[in-house]
Amino acid sequence: MKKTWIISACLLGTPCRYDGKSCPFEIPDEWKDIELVPVCPEVLGGLPVPRTPSEIREGKVYFKSGEDVTEFFRKGALKTLEIARKNHADAAVLKSKSPSCGYGRIYDGTFTGNLTEGKGITAKRLEENGIRIISFEEFEKTK
Ligand code: SF4
């Protein structure tokens, strides 16, 4: 049976980023037998495209305008987990630095471009539920 992974939809070319763009990459040959299921937790959580940038501060997520949008991110993380489970995905390839998908390093909540150690809301939720996270940033370093 084919292996299934979840992948950040913007990495497969879906223009779902906050700025209405995507960030596609060339899928490596060694992944050709893996079924990649695209998800965008922020859209799943009910946020529009384009949208105001958001960052995590003290465990909550805020729009740059200051609005607390944590619930959208929690909902998106839960829906992503549901999709992962329904598809029997055992790993997730996630876009780096995002307050949803980031893993290892994320923006520090000051909207100044600074990074800090941390995990996005979805990355954390998936990991807590036994799904292996493949950080896209780390994957790129291995090439
Ligand atoms: Fe890409 Fe994840 Fe941000 Fe959606 S939430 S645009 S999938 S990084």
Structure description:
The structure is a single chain. The chain is built from 4 helices and 8 strands. The protein is of the alpha/beta class and 143 residues long. The protein has a domain at 4-52 and 71-96 and 119-141. The longest helix has 17 residues, at 70-86. The protein starts with a strand and ends with a helix. The model has no long low-confidence stretch (mean pLDDT 96). The site of iron/sulfur cluster (SF4) has 12 residues, from helix 1. Iron/sulfur cluster (SF4) is lined by residues 8-10, 16-17, 40-42, 95, 98, 100-101.
Features:
143 residues; alpha/beta; 4-stranded parallel sheet; two-stranded antiparallel ribbon; 4 helices; binds iron/sulfur cluster
Secondary structure elements and pairings:
Blueprint: E1 3-8, E2 34-39, H1 41-44, E3 54-57, E4 60-63, H2 70-86, E5 91-94, E6 103-107, E7 115-119, H3 121-128, E8 132-135, H4 136-141
Parallel strand pairs: 1-2, 1-5, 5-8
Antiparallel strand pairs: 3-4, 6-7
Short characterization:
The protein has 143 residues and is of the alpha/beta class. The protein has a domain at 4-52 and 71-96 and 119-141. The protein is built from four helices and eight strands; from the N terminus they run ββαββαβββαβα.
Beta-sheet strand percentage? 25-35%
With strands numbered from the N-terminus, the spatial order across the biggest sheet is 2-1-5-8
Distinct helical segment count: 4
Find the count of extended strands (DSSP E, 2+ residues).
8
Low-confidence stretches: none
Mean pLDDT: 96
Structural class: alpha/beta
Shape: globular
Most strands sheet: 4 strands, parallel
Helicity level, as a percent range?
Answer: 10-25%
Q: What integer value in Å does the Rg equal?
A: 14 Å
What gap, in angstroms, lies between the N and C termini? 27 Å
Bound compounds, each kind once, are: iron/sulfur cluster
Give the H and E element order.
EEHEEHEEEHEH
